[in-house]
Amino acid sequence: MSRERRWFPVCRGEEAVPRHIVHTALLGQELAVWRADDGTVNAWENRCPHRGVRLSVGTNLGDRLKCRYHGWTYASGSGQCLERPAHPGEAPPRIVKARRFGCVESDGYVWVRLAGEGAGDGPAPGFGRGTAPPGLTLRSIHVWAPAAAVADALARHAGEAPDGSPAEAVDPYTVRSAHAEAGEILYAMQPVADDETIIHAALAEAPPASERIAVLRRENGRVCALRDAIEASGSP
Amino acid sequence: MIRLYDYVLSGNCYKIRLLLSLLGLEWETRWIDFHPKREHKSEWFLGLNPLGQVPVLEDGDFRLRDAQAILVYLAAKHDERGRWYPAGDPRTLGEIAQWLAFADGITATASAARLHDGIFFELDADRARAGANAPFRVLDEHLWFQEQEGREWLCAPGHPTIADLACFPYVALSEEGGVSRLPYPAIRRWTDRVKRIPGFIPMSGVLVA
Fold this sequence. Notes:
Chain A has about 240 residues and is of the alpha+beta class. Chain A is built from two helices and 16 strands.
C-alpha cells in the first residue's frame, strides 16, 4: 500500500476556522488547508501556481483564496484561478488551478490523501468506528520524531488498561488503547515529514460536560509527556 | 509630545508603534541606525539608555526604556477605556505581567535567530531556533485551551491586552529566523486575530490578515 494513497488526518475540523488558512504538511508535502464560508474544506498544495509563494500566507476570502504576492485568486472546490489583477478583463486560462488533494471531513477531523481516486488504499478516512464518531477530540500534539517511532511509543506506553493489556497498534499509523481513566482512546498519526509527526487523538466516549476541560487537560498532559520522552531519547 | 527612539526592523519597537496606533495617539519618531551603524551603542544613545537597546520613549520630561515597560506606561496613561491594561483588575494585571516577562523569552530565542539570519549577529542560531520551540509550545497550548473556554486572547478579559501586543511581533516574525509556525496552529489562529484588531498596523515581515 502506498502511503501517498492513504488518508491521514491533518487537523481537527473545528480548527479550520472561517477566513483562516491552516498551514500543515503530509509526507513532506506542504498543505494549505482552508474552509470556505459554505463549509467546504480545501486541501491544496501550499504553493501558488503563478510564482510559487506559499498560499498559507495569503487570504481566505470566503469563497476563494487570494495569493499574497500578485493577488491571483483560486476558487474553493475547483481551485480554478478566477482573477489576475495585472490582467483586468481577461479571463484566466482554465489550465491555471491550485493543485488540490483529496480532502474529506470525518470523525471531527480533516483527512487528506496525496494521490489516488475513489476508495483508494487503506482504511476509509476516519477512526474506523463505523457510524459512531468519537465523543471528544483532543488537542493534537506535534512531535519532532518519525511517525513509526511515535506510533510505537504510543502502543507501548499509552495503554495502562485495567487488565494490563497493552495498547493495540491497529496499523502503522493508528493506535487504540483502553485507558483506566479515559476509556478507549484512538490515536492517528499525521506523518508531517520524515522526522516530524502530529498525534491526533480522540476519546471514544464523551465525558460529562462539566469534566470536559479537565479531561482535555489531563489527556493533553499525558500525550505531551510521551512527546517529551520520545524527543529526549529518540526511542523511549 | 511623545517621542519614540525607533528602529524600523525591531519587533520591540514595532509593538510600541502598534499600541500607539491602536490608541490613536500621535508621536514623533527619532530613527536609530541599529544596523549597520550600531547607533544604539553610540555614546549619545547610551546616555538615554545605558543598556544600549531600542525602544526608548519620551513623553514630555518622562523617559522610559524597555518595550514591555513602555507598553504598560502608554496603556495606563493614554487608554481612556482602560482595556489594554485594566488597572482595577488584579488577576488580569498579574496575567499581563506574566506574559510580558514571557515575551522576553521569545525575544531571547526567536528574535535572536532572526538577528543572526537577517543582520548577521554572531550567536548560536540553531540553539536559538531550538530554544524558540519551548516558549512557542507553551504559548500554543495556552491559546488552545483559551479557545476551548471561549477566549480569544492571552489573558482572561474578552478583549486583547498589552500582553498580546508584547508577544505578537517576534512570534509573527519567527520565520525570518527559520522558526516555522507549522507546529503551532493555535498560535497561527491567534496571530490572525491580532491582525484583525481595528487599527492594526503591520511592519516589514508581518503580513496583514
